[in-house]
Amino acid sequence: MGCSLEKKEFELAYFVAISKLLKPYRDLVVLLFTLDICIKK
To answer: What are the residue boundaries of the structural domains of the chain, listed by start?
Structure first.
């Protein structure tokens, strides 16, 4: 469980960093991130 939680925290931090770098494209980034999660499940 610990490793899984750490992975989720890393993914969230990674997503937030990308969002801040790509503010004009935030909606697109959110959409791609959501689709990526759906595809991986």
So the answer is: 2-40
Element counts in the chain: helices (H) and strands (E): 2, 0
Spatial neighbors of 19 by CB under 8 A, at least 6 apart, are 26, 29, 30
CB 34 within 8 A of CB 24: no
Q: Could you tell me the pTM of the whole model?
A: 0.39
Q: Which residues make Cβ contacts (< 8 Å) with residue 18, sequence separation at least 6?
A: 29, 33
19 token code pair:
């969002």
Q: What is the pLDDT of residues 4-28, one digit of tens each?
A: 668 888 888 888 888 788 777 778 8
